[in-house]
């Protein structure tokens, strides 16, 4: 049997008319946003060839804080996001829709210098 045919329990329940409680839906959206941010920070840091420790030094944070952000263990404040964007020499772009969260860092300069 092809794995692409498998449905998650949630998908089957939704198909049968089940609706999630609002608090579960909110938590799911927060997790998606946190994961999207974590991936964006990791991708930009890797593109710059920085370690977590080097990024932390640039941003005035600890390596542990960078690790928690990249591990989706925390949702940073706006001032912290500003520090991250500056340290990553990029603009932070966030698009929030009902079922989709897109987070990306747009470099200020070409990385191939």
UniProtKB/TrEMBL annotation:
GO-annotated molecular function = DNA binding
Q: Which InterPro entries match?
A: Cro/C1-type_HTH, Lambda_DNA-bd_dom_sf
Q: Name one Pfam family in it.
A: HTH_3
What CDD domains is this protein classified in? HTH_XRE
> What residues does the HTH cro/C1-type domain cover?
41-95
Protein's name in the database: XRE family transcriptional regulator
Q: Can you name the source organism?
A: Streptomyces triticagri
Taxonomic classification, please? Bacteria, Bacillati, Actinomycetota, Actinomycetes, Kitasatosporales
